[in-house]
Design goal:
Layout lengths: L6 H16 L3 H9 L6 H10 L17 H13 L7 H14 L2 H13 L4 E4 L12 E4 L2 E7 L8 E5 L5 E5 L5 E6 L8 E10 L1 E2 L7 H34 L1 E2 L2 E2 L4 H30 L1 H29 L11 H13 L4 H16 L1
Parallel strand pairs: 1-4
Antiparallel strand pairs: 2-3, 3-7, 4-5, 5-8, 6-7, 9-10
Helix pairs in contact: 1-3, 1-4, 4-7, 4-8, 5-6, 5-7, 7-8, 7-9, 7-10, 8-9, 9-10, 9-11
Length: 361
């Protein structure tokens, strides 16, 4: 039995990698940050042409009908390039919500647009992964009132919004009564903010099951874990390359035992994470009974390993690691942002413990 990616999955990763490299790689991210852009339209259009925005959407609606594992593999490449464009909300969580909870009319209206990349979608469900004072949304008579913080893919045309009773609704970004406020976070590659609802008209996803929000959270957590995996791998690769070329006392610093150990520790901690993320992505579709638990494990473990790799890679670079010239801070901050989105490692481990206890009883 072969436990590896298929040729098609390897080609998918390679295609996305080559596109992001040709689009400018780190320099495109620098430009995005310097200009304080809200959307990298060129990247979004190119990824849509590659079919990335329609990965999970069925062929009947213009998508590819691929698996959540394929989406996780794509997220890994996005993290490797710190790509400043929407993906987790618009290509994963929103399509899942519509396909599993939307009516036929809603699916026919929105899924072709999402697949084509003509609209972007955000997911405002973070209050179900850690409540914040004053942050909740109430649905009454078809309208929403309240506040949602840190929606996934904030700069969107439409949002999937969870209310405090567990319902899901669609809200257009230009709906009367909706106020969007951008917030400053450490990760400039992902604009985020808060949504304020003042009696905003909302379209419910009537077919949404009680467990759909949990499914969306599981999928989002695996995508953030995969993104962290890609970012951490890139930091490791850059550290090894830097250690081979940077010289002190007439020899490459990579020849010093201390630096060798730092690189080896990063590699040893990161390599098992790849199988963990792959399995978590596979479980989302194929092993629903294990999906939530494996998603929790992947998110929590990658949060910790990613933080260690980010710190150690910066140390390998010495003083250069803190400069914009090298640019490590883009991956460092991306990993820090991923760590907290949809639940930090402490909360996620607590959820995993409860799930494991429930399964054992």
């Amino acid at each position: 039995m072969e436990f590896d990616l298929s040729d098609e999955q390897a080609m998918l990763q390679d295609s996305v990698h080559r596109f992001l490299l040709d689009a400018g790689g780190l320099e495109r991210t620098r430009a995005f940050a310097a200009k304080a852009e809200t959307r990298a339209t060129d990247l979004a259009d190119g990824l849509a042409q590659l079919g990335v925005t329609g990965l999970l959407i069925g062929e009947e609606h213009g998508g590819s009908g691929l698996s959540l594992l394929d989406a996780a593999l794509t997220a890994e490449v996005m993290g490797r390039h710190v790509a400043p464009t929407a993906f987790i909300g618009t290509a994963v969580m929103a399509p899942l919500a519509l396909q599993r909870g939307g009516s036929r009319t809603q699916r026919d209206q929105w899924l072709p647009k999402l697949a084509a990349g003509s609209v972007t979608a955000g997911a405002a469900i973070s209050e179900f992964t850690g409540g914040r004072e004053g942050a909740s949304v109430v649905r009454s008579d078809g309208r929403l009132t309240g506040r949602a913080l840190f929606p996934v893919d904030f700069e969107a045309d439409v949002y999937v919004v969870a209310d405090r009773d567990g319902g899901l609704s669609l809200v257009a970004a230009d709906a009367p009564g909706l106020t969007r406020t951008r917030l400053i976070t450490i990760d400039v590659t992902r604009p985020t903010g808060e949504l304020q609802f003042d009696n905003v008209e909302a379209e419910p996803l009537e077919a949404a099951s009680p467990g759909l929000i949990s499914d969306l959270i599981d999928a989002g957590r695996v995508m953030y874990a995969a993104d962290t995996l890609g970012a951490a791998q890139e930091m490791l690769d850059r550290s090894v390359a830097y250690a081979a070329e940077r010289k002190q006392f007439g020899r490459p610093i990579g020849s010093f035992q201390a630096v060798k150990h730092m690189c080896a520790e990063m590699a040893a901690a990161l390599e098992p994470c790849r199988a963990l993320v792959w399995y978590a992505g596979y479980a989302l579709d194929a092993l629903p009974a294990e999906a939530s638990l494996t998603a929790c494990h992947a998110k929590a473990h990658l949060s910790e390993v990613g933080t260690m790799v980010a710190r150690t890679a910066t140390e390998v670079h010495g003083g250069m690691g803190f400069t914009d010239l090298v640019g490590l801070h883009y991956w460092f901050k991306r990993i820090g942002f991923n760590r907290q989105m949809l639940g930090g490692p402490q909360r996620v481990r607590e959820e995993a413990a409860k799930l494991a206890l429930a399964q054992a009883s």
